[in-house]
Design brief:
Helix content is 74%, strand content 1%. The protein is an all-alpha fold. It has one domain: MFS general substrate transporter like domains (Growth Hormone, Chain: A), CATH 1.20.1250. Strands 1-2 form a two-stranded antiparallel ribbon. Strand 1 and strand 2 form a beta hairpin. Helix 3 packs antiparallel against helix 15 and helix 11 runs antiparallel to helix 14. It is globular.
Length: 470
């Protein structure tokens, strides 16, 4: 390929993050997630629960949906990756899951304020989540072909940064023109555009169709510019049975690849903790701080802007120093944030009472949102870059399938622990205690990961062996 084609391919690859980020920014965290918590809580109150029990039940239901979706992704990603690698084709899979993604996200419209379709829409949301994460696996597998090891960190960071800017723009549109507050108007004081009925929360419910339409428009550059080489003649995808056997063999081989194995194990825990913060941040703001959708949206803008800036800067540091220092710094920042979340409520901070109507919890949580956005975005991009340093170039999709497996194999753990601690302690704040432990354990395991990747780890091992020195 010529240099112009290469540049278009990289830019087209960037558009995937731009096209899918609204699902996470608007859907998972700042608009639909809090709206679901609001609707579910009212539905449980109507069934006779106390307010505290209804809040806890709403958070538990949301976490269980994330748990089951994460488990499905964990066990399907390596298999699909092995099948795709066997035929050398990723685009057909991305096309197929794009259809699922559009249909399911569009269906979020049907969650009514009175709780009608609550369980159906919860299922649709997490099927869409599965589609988004599976597409991410295939596009991540294209990353090694976009540049050298030194360039990958910057490419990964730039792509993630542009994605966050897409999240910022989409959130601005929702808040200014569509999502209504309790009085039926948007952030700028108007009723939702397009004649949407604020009484039926149609402005907020439009987040589903908005996510679907955004994706359809901005995936066009990806499909136009990100081409794959011609498939090998007479080479067909392997079957599920053979793919499973191949994945099992690869996983067993990780015992001989300590650096890669420990990185996957470490990321299994710290990414699970990060995903829990993303998934429950808006829910926490709704149930603990009693924030409105508009307040949560402003919180989202702060976090997304910080993420866009910090992720780009993180990519620059990755290019200069490698991904390991970026990963460690971000985990420490997220540990501090998690401790603040556990120790803060509307009325107190680490047990110290606050005055009535104190704005300190709001200020602290806005700072937490900025930190979560910045550290989380840079951590994601640096982890993707670190994975590239460990993969077998002949099997990139299977390798990133294992990366997805590491990110989702314990996806049930953080949501399940949050649900358990929330139910056990009857406290939304204390329900976040397990998140701190997951971050710390992931950080501890990084001590066995070679900062320069598996190939460097193998070379270091050979140099330190007796035969090499003798």
């Amino acid at each position: 390929m010529n240099s112009q084609t290469d540049r278009k391919r990289v830019v087209g690859w960037y558009f995937f993050d731009w096209a899918t980020q609204p699902f996470y920014t608007l859907g998972l965290t700042f608009i639909f997630g809090p709206y679901f918590a609001f609707v579910a809580t009212n539905a449980f109150l109507a069934s006779g629960m106390t307010e505290t029990a209804a809040d806890a039940q709403a958070q538990s239901v949301w976490s269980l949906g994330q748990m089951f979706a994460g488990l499905f992704i964990a066990f399907s990603a390596p298999l699909l990756g092995a099948i795709a690698d066997s035929a050398g084709r990723k685009r057909p899979w991305i096309w197929g899951f794009s259809v699922v993604y559009v249909l399911t996200t569009f269906g979020l419209w049907w969650l009514m304020p009175d709780g009608t379709n609550l369980w159906l829409v919860l299922a649709l949301f997490y099927i869409g989540f599965i589609a988004a994460e599976t597409m991410l696996n295939f596009t991540n597998a294209m990353l090694p072909s976009l540049g050298s090891d030194e360039e990958i960190g910057k490419i990964s960071g730039t792509g993630a940064s542009l994605g966050y800017w897409g999240g910022v723009l989409s959130l601005f549109i929702m808040l200014l023109l569509l999502a209504e507050n309790d009085t039926g108007v948007t952030l700028i004081g108007i009723e939702p555009i397009l004649g949407l009925d604020p009484e039926a929360r149609e402005g907020t419910r439009s987040v589903g169709p908005f996510i679907a339409i955004w994706f359809m428009i901005f995936m066009i550059p990806f499909f136009v510019w990100v081409k794959e080489g011609k498939p090998v003649a007479n080479k067909a995808p392997i079957g599920v049975g053979r793919a499973f056997s191949q994945v099992v063999t690869t996983i067993k081989g990780l015992t001989r690849q300590r650096s890669m194995g420990m990185f996957l194990l470490s990321s299994m825990f710290y990414r699970d903790a990060l995903n829990a913060i993303y998934a429950f941040g808006g829910v926490y703001a709704t149930l603990v701080l009693n924030w409105s959708i508009i307040q949560i949206g402003v919180f989202g803008i702060v976090g997304a802007i910080t993420a866009a800036i910090a992720t780009y800067i993180g990519g620059m540091f990755d290019r200069k120093f490698g991904p390991m220092p970026v990963i460690k710094f971000c985990i420490w920042a997220l540990i501090i944030v998690s401790a603040l979340i556990v120790g803060m409520s509307r009325d107190s901070l680490f047990g110290v009472p606050l005055g009535d109507g104190s704005s300190l919890p709001d200020i602290i949580f806005y700072i937490c949102g900025a930190t979560i956005g910045g550290a989380g975005g840079a951590l994601y991009a640096a982890s993707r870059s670190m994975m590239v340093r460990h993969i077998d170039p002949a099997h990139p999709t299977e390798a990133f399938g294992l990366f997805a497996l590491a990110g989702k194999a314990t996806a049930f753990l953080a949501p399940a622990l949050i649900a358990l601690f929330t139910w056990w302690l009857q406290s939304n704040q204390l329900g976040f205690l397990p998140v701190i432990g997951l971050f710390i354990f992931g950080l501890f395991l990084l001590r066995w990961v070679n900062p320069n990747g598996e190939r460097a780890a193998e070379w270091d091992s050979k140099r330190s062996s007796p035969s090499a020195s003798g």
